[in-house]
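Chapter summary example.
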Amino acid sequence: MHSTAQKLTAEFVGTFALCFAGIGAMCADSFLKSGSPNAAGTGLLGIALAHGLAIAVMVNSLGHISGGHFNPAITIGFWVSKKIGTGMTLLYWAAQLAGAGAASLLLTVILPRDLWRAPGLMLGVPALGTGIDNVHAMVLEAALTFLLVWVVFATTVDEKSSFRSTAGFSIGLTIAIGILVGGPLSGAAMNPARAFGPVLITGMWKDHGVHWVGPLFGGALAAATYSSVFLRPVFRSPE
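The structure predicted for these 239 residues follows.
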């Protein structure tokens, strides 16, 4: 049994890794493209893989300590399904937001200001695509996060699952897929902490609510649905 301090440290480090790798990949892509007009950069696929691989590694390495949430939308799913108390939920959120903020701040120290503040990048703040309004972006974030939390519950929470050893890989792939689908449209944060870190540093709060309401709703709905359908006790009629 791990202590609260150990769990919060794991959540801080895991969220830090996600944001540092994900935002760092976006900055690297911008840097490569700025060097030559014909440079391809890492592209959306590279950015998606950076986020997904970071989560895969952190879930596999730290999941046994804290559960490997690294995302307030996953934590609220555990709260809705009564697998974590209200107090611990708030502590997890605080650790996750702190980890995201620390990663974002460190990147601004390491990288040139002109790079991380480049137009269209702004330290990886999730941005809505042209013509995408808040409501549609919120629905997309909710749908993508629903699928993410569904996979989390199916691979790490469900004791009948035979894929627990590969849970990190499954969760990471789900995040990568979500970014490939929603990255250009809603920003595909699927994680309020991932959105909060760069916004805290840059002060770009416009549309920030989209990346809280959508993921939290989608995460809670996925957890409630999976729990009620697959985790509830099965009634057996007497023979």
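To summarize the output: The first helix runs from residue 4 to 35.
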